[in-house]
Every structure is written in C-alpha cells, then in structure tokens.
Amino acid sequence: MIRRVLIGAALLAATTAAFAVGPGDPKPAEDVDGKYFDADGVPTFNIAEDGTVDWYTYSGFRRYHAECHVCHGPDGMGSSYAPALAESVANIDYYTFYEVVVNGKQAVGTGQANQVMPAFGTNPNVMCYLDDIYVYLRARAQGGLPRGRPAKKEAKPDGFVEAENACMGG
Fold first, then answer.
1. Which of 100, 105, 130, 135 is the most buried (most CB within 10 A)?
2. Is 161 exposed, middle or buried (0-12, 13-18, 19+ CB in 10 A)?
3. pLDDT above 90 for 59
4. Could you tell me the pTM of the whole model?
5. Cα distances (Å, whole numbers) of residue 145 to 29, 48, 167
6. Strands across the sheet containing 35-37
C-alpha cells in the first residue's frame, strides 16, 4: 500500500513537472485596449524604453502589494513564510499560476494534508485582478522590472474601468 502511494506521488510529481513549463516569450504580440498579450494569447507586460509600464503591470504591482506580499514578500522576492513568486512565475505557465491561486495548494507527502497556500477563487480583490498580478510578476521575472513602485505608467484604459466595475459589481 505504501509503495503504491509513493509510486502515485512520484507519477503525480513527474506529470506536474512535465506540464509546469515556463511562460514563454513575454514580448507583446497584441494590444487590446491597453492590455497586452503574447503570441500564445497569454497576458503579458509592456515596458517602454523610458521605463513606462502598461496600466495592467502597474495595477498588478498595487494588487500584489495589497493581497500577496504579506506572505510572498515585497516585489515578489519571497519571505521566510512563502516562496518568491517572481522566481515561481519564471518557471510555470499562466494556467498553472491561475490554478494555484484559484484553488490553493496543499503539501503532498507530509503524511497529512497541509494547506500551503489558501484558495483565493472567491476573493474578488484577487480574482478581479488576477491577470494584473500575473503580468506584474511576469514583468519582475522576465522583463527586468526593478523593485519598487513603477515610476511611470500608461493611462488607465477604459476597458480596465469597465472590467473592474463589472467584476466588483460597480
């Protein structure tokens, strides 16, 4: 029985590792009302040569520091309590990130189920801005976005305001 559990855990780990592919080329391929997407249709960042960031990256900075930094440390750098998400996002794809945030994560192989990260799937302060948080962390991981609040940002797009109002019930 223990052997089957260990084999099952090893297969699950190998399968998870096989699908946990990095996020790919972050270069924007499409701009939809100020929201950028890479060639695979995944939300991405846009940082101009003068350091101006797109609104979604800026929003992600704000939302990350409102909801995530308590555990994961400022600027996605990690803490003694939780891993550096700037490093994690460099090694997993958008869909894996999304799944972990929505459903949480449990420690496997500890002899009991331990919640490592709580699920945020019902928290509108996270879910309404999940793409923004991802884009910010992706910029930290792949785009050379320095630590701290971005000094320059694009204007808030109308599409952002509409989506925020719809999601937050405004």
1. 135
2. exposed
3. yes
4. 0.83
5. 19, 11, 28
6. 30-32, 35-37, 43-44
